[in-house]
Specification:
The two termini are 21 Å apart. Helix content is 18%, strand content 46%. A hairpin with a 4-residue loop joins strand 2 and strand 3. By secondary structure, it is an alpha+beta fold.
């Protein structure tokens, strides 16, 4: 399938509370990964699309889930989204050792992340 959903991320106002809740609700393995000035919690689900959670990077914003879609060319896909009427919330950004992402808001107001994994 072209452009599958590959990651789902919780941007939360309270990571500890979210980890406690989802850790009891589902059979997920939650693994904290230090990322410099913050901790990212990987959500390992076994089969299917995994995800992560972190303290919401936008102060004052509500907790929300963000889906990531795989793209072959992150810059081209981000540019195409903008051309088609999307607002670029976060331009192409590197996740060291993992890949690149951007975050867009479509013309209807829905937010989506684009993801290009590091090759090799």
């Amino acid at each position: 399938m072209a452009n599958p959903f590959v990651h789902v991320e919780l941007n939360t106002t309270d990571p500890a509370k979210a980890k406690e809740f989802y850790g009891k609700l589902f059979d997920w393995k939650l693994e904290d990964v230090p990322m410099g000035d913050f901790t990212y919690t990987m959500i390992k689900v076994g089969e299917g699309t995994g995800g992560g959670m972190l303290k919401h990077p936008m102060p004052g914003a509500p907790s929300t889930w963000l889906a990531y879609v795989h793209v072959n060319d992150i810059a081209a896909a981000t540019g195409k989204a903008k051309f088609l009427g999307a607002t670029v919330i976060k331009d192409v950004t590197e996740v060291p050792g993992a890949g690149h992402f951007s975050i867009i808001q479509d013309p209807t107001g829905a937010v989506l992340a684009l993801w290009k994994p590091k090759m090799g």
